[in-house]
TrEMBL record:
Chief place where the protein resides: cytoplasm
Stored Pfam families: SRP72 (PF08492), SRP_TPR_like (PF17004), TPR_8 (PF13181)
Source species of the chain: Poecile atricapillus (Black-capped chickadee)
Gene that produces this protein: Srp72
Keyword Endoplasmic reticulum in record: yes
Basic residues biased stretches: 560-570, 662-678
Classification via InterPro entries: Signal_recog_part_SRP72_RNA-bd (IPR013699), SRP72 (IPR026270), SRP72_TPR-like (IPR031545), TPR-like_helical_dom_sf (IPR011990), TPR_rpt (IPR019734)
Identification of the protein by name: Signal recognition particle subunit SRP72
Biased composition (Low complexity): 607-641
Stretches forming TPR repeats: 226-259
Amino acid sequence: KMAAAAGAAAAAGLWSEVNRCGQNGDFARALKSVNKILQINKDDVTALQCKIVCLIQNGNFKEALGIINTHTKVLTSDVIAFEKAYCEYRLNRIESALKTIQSASQQTDKLKELYGQVLYRLERYDDCLAAYRDLIRNSQDEYEEERKTNLSAVVAAQSTWEKVVPEDLGLREATYELCYNSACALIGQGKLNEAMKKLQKAEELCRQSLSEDSDVTEEDIEAELAIIHGQMAYIMQLQGRTEDALQLYNQIIKLKPTDVGLLAVIANNIITINKDQNVFDSKKKVKLTNAEGVEHKLSKKQLQAIEFNKALLAMYTNQADQCRKLSASLQSQSPEHLLPVLIQAAQLCREKQHAKAVGLLQDFADQHPANAAEIKLTMAQLKIAQGSVTKACMILRSIEELQHKPGMVSALVTMYSHEEDIDSAIEVFTQAIQWYQQYQASQTRAANPKSPVHLSLIREAANFKLKHGRKKEAISDLEELWKQNPKDVHTLAQLISAYSLVDPEKAKVLSKHLPSSDTMSLKVDVDALENSHGATYVRKKAGKLTGDNQQKEQGQGEVKKKKKKKKGKLPKNYDPKVTPDPERWLPMRERSYYRGRKKGKKKDQVGKGTQGSTTTGSSELDASRTASSPPTSPRPGSGAAVSATSNVIPPRHQKPAGAPATKKKQQQKKKKGSKGGW
């Protein structure tokens, strides 16, 4: 009895210690006391519950879940349902957490809160929205603001990922979290300018809220603002301001935020900006998308987009095997998605396997008819790249839902015209016109009058037929147009012009329907038209100059008369006594007296021949005779009289008489000659 009493006293002391530590938030110390209590009574339900709570508070979710699973007899689902579901939720076992919540006999407020979080992680946004609405309606406590924030996050997710137009929840955007979520919803709707204003407001509210706390530093504020700035950069990217977006993205990365999801999204967005450029930077950024825990922070569509970009980056960096592996994995996860098969086709085209790429796309189009249109457009593009325009036309014409579209008709007619297949081009026009006729026949005339697209197609068909000499077919189209609108003078004029080539009498009859010249008088200001900005001819205004203007004009004329002509510069060696060479403006080679340059540079020295012999007389080698006589310009036509050894050079090209070649040049020439001899 005494031992039992001592044990009870010890347990009471330990419980008081647990209570005190719990109130102080010292759960590590509380855990030690709880373990001592369990040594006294290992099946104490309250002690086990306290131990699980201490472990959860310390972040030991796996250990806490292990205790729950090993004491199932004592800790029934009714007793420990919330703690078990919460541990599973924090360990990212979301499906298990959902089952635990649904199996609980009593749905407490705590379980409902957790249920909303679980549904959000499972991306069941409609159910999540209903759960939070129920919570807000039926609970009144200090967590109301957090619930409203979560509710706005659900609406933003619906707008972004499911393209659902969000309803106005009537929430007062008093916190930066609510402003941020509202901005995300606006981005999902494509209202980028409004979203940017909301984000700016969110930034302002965030700064105000955090600056009130004296313990918060500027670095802490910037870290909290990182997600807002990341969304701002995303809007800039969507608006085409890629340089500004890239700068802001890199600023956020330099802050090294702890949110791996934010870093992964920013890195992915930078990769999309880089595309096939700056691939080394993209390779570095890919590492951020592979961080641990990223898969639990992002939605399925975000993770899928990252994987697509990894496959594209592998293609751009010529990692063909890696590209095929990633795209095949993506295709197995989402068999109906277009991008994986398009990436595979692009990789095959880079490897010059165009036929294989077309076959791959054709197989996908056959298996998934709903997505066949986009695939066939890609196939047609590949065929055009190969030069198979006719085959491309056949593929395009097989897309039934696009056959009547003006863009498709225009593309097909252009391609057939390039191939000079006029009959097929006219057939394209005919099929499109027939489609509109059948469509309009199925509608009531009051509800849907003649479509302007239909009439424009008929007009384009008529113009095309006239251009290619199909006058009779064009006339029937023009008559149809005129029948639809008898007041259309332009169509009538075209019709008369066409008939004048086939049936002049009919053209004369139709010309009576043209309005008379009196009724066609147009109120046009001819002077204003001629003086307009786009006029090719502008008529000068006539009229005499009056008074001051006339004197001004005369004064300008006098000034012009007084201007003197500037004297030209003369060469430095100009001699007024010598007649200038009339051929001085011609290049040296084109002058009549030019005899070409001698190969030897020693013109005035000993020439070739036997040793000691000379080619000229001693009088010609006497420098005193040539130095005393001034050089003169040669007369026109006197080039034949100039000897090969003469040192007389035309003006502006003179050198000192008899200037010998340098010793260095002679040595170089000898070296070259000796090499040539070998």
